[in-house]
């Protein structure tokens, strides 16, 4: 490179640096402007909701009475819906929802406990006879529990009948029933109701234990690699075919027709 070319190159360097600096500034400014535009577009919303009179309302801001209402959020530039917000639940609805979630969680835990119990029973026994014997003990305990509940209900019913007779006699005699007496009657009513509900549950559990045992035996055979139980219907002897009636004798005449 000769001297003139070197001088020209040196003259271009400040210009290149200046252009490079301007390009960088321009890029930064464009980025900031784009971000500002995006933020502005994000803020430009329209809200659509139905007021208490059933009329559809549109606004770029939500009045206080519409904050908890179901609404649709719309991009003001494009006119497209960007979000759908459900209305806030009332305290009663939230309480009902929480009860439902708690019940679902209780059922889930109950099913998990049943599965773990089932797995433990399958792994604890070596033969079907051991499993059947253990299950027979559970059935007997369940029956004893039902009998105890029935005896308790009978005793409560007798006590309640006696207290009601005493309260009736006091009223007939013109004497007010003792408040403690009335409280005892109410408590007996509640306890009898609770025991009767428990009795229904225990009887339902007992009724389902045969099916539960059959299911456990099936799982036990699968876990131990045993063949499935033979079908009782397949093992039952086949019903005897009815004997065929003898063919009528062609030479014999009609009954009673011999002459």
Automatic annotation (TrEMBL):
Compositional bias of kind Low complexity: 235-253
Region annotation Disordered: where it falls in the sequence: 222-259
InterPro entries: DUF4124
Highest rank taxon of the organism: Bacteria
DUF4124 domain residues: 45-74
The name this protein goes by in its record: DUF4124 domain-containing protein
The species this protein was found in: Arenimonas fontis
């Amino acid at each position: 490179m000769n001297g003139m070319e070197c001088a020209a190159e040196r003259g271009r360097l400040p210009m290149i640096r200046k252009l490079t600096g301007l390009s960088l500034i321009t890029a930064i400014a464009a980025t900031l402007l784009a971000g500002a535009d995006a933020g502005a577009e994000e803020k430009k919303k329209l809200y659509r909701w139905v007021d208490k009179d059933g009329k559809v309302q549109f606004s770029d801001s939500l009045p206080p009475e519409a904050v908890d209402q179901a609404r649709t959020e719309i991009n003001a530039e494009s006119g497209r819906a960007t979000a759908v917000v459900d209305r806030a639940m009332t305290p009663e609805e939230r309480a009902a929802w929480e009860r439902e979630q708690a019940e679902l969680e209780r059922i889930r835990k109950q099913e998990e406990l049943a599965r773990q119990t089932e797995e433990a029973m399958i792994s604890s026994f070596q033969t079907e006879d051991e499993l059947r014997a253990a299950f027979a003990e559970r059935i007997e305990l369940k029956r004893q529990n039902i009998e105890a509940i029935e005896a308790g209900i009978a005793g409560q019913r007798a006590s309640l009948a006696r207290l009601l007779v005493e309260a009736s006699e006091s009223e007939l005699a013109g004497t007010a029933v003792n408040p403690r007496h009335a409280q005892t009657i109410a408590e007996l009513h509640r306890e009898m109701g609770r025991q009767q509900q428990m009795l229904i549950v225990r009887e339902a559990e007992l009724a389902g234990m045969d099916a539960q045992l059959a299911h456990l035996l099936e799982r036990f055979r699968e876990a131990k690699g045993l063949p499935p139980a033979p079908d009782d219907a397949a093992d039952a002897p086949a019903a005897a075919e009815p004997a065929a009636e003898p063919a009528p004798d062609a030479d014999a005449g009609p009954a009673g027709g011999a002459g």
